[in-house]
Here is the input.
Amino acid sequence: LRHYQQASEVCPDEDEKEKSAIIHNMAVIHAGQGRIEEALSLYKASADIEESIGNVQGKAATLAMMGQLLADKKGDFETALAYLQESLEILERLRSPDAEKVKEIMSQVQFMAMMQSPEGGNIMGKLKTLLESADEEELKGILGAILSGEDGEEE
Here is the structure.
C-alpha cells in the first residue's frame, strides 16, 4: 500500500489513466485488508477519473468491483446490483466478453439477496426441516426430482 501511495504522489497530474490505476489498486488492497469503506471511496475516485478521461472499460471494471464488494462485505444488494447493472450496460455496449462474467456476478448477488430475504430464509428453513426428517429413500427421491427438474406437482 505504501508503494502505491508513493506512486500516487509522484505520478504526474496529467497522467490521469495511471493515477486511476494506482487508486484502483489501492482500493483492492484496502478491500483485501477488510477496510471496506476506504476501498469503496477509492473505487469511487477511480471510477470518476475513468469517466472523466473516457476510459469506459476501466470504469466498468471498477463498478463491477464496487458491486461485488458491496454485496459480499456489506450486504447492500440493491446498490451492488445498481453498480453491476451499470457495468454490464457499458460492457455490452463495448461487446466485451467480460459482460458474461458480470452477468454471473449479478446472478450470485440476486441469489444472495433472495437468501437474505424473509422468503428466502423461510425456503431454506423448510428445506432443512424436510431434509432432516427424510429417510434415505425419501432423500434419494428428493435429489432425483431436483436433478431431473421435476417440480413435484401432479398433473
Q: What stands out?
A: The helical segments are 2-10, 16-32, 36-52, 56-74, 77-93, 98-116, 118-133, 136-148. The chain has a mean pLDDT of 86. The chain is about 80% helix and 0% strand.
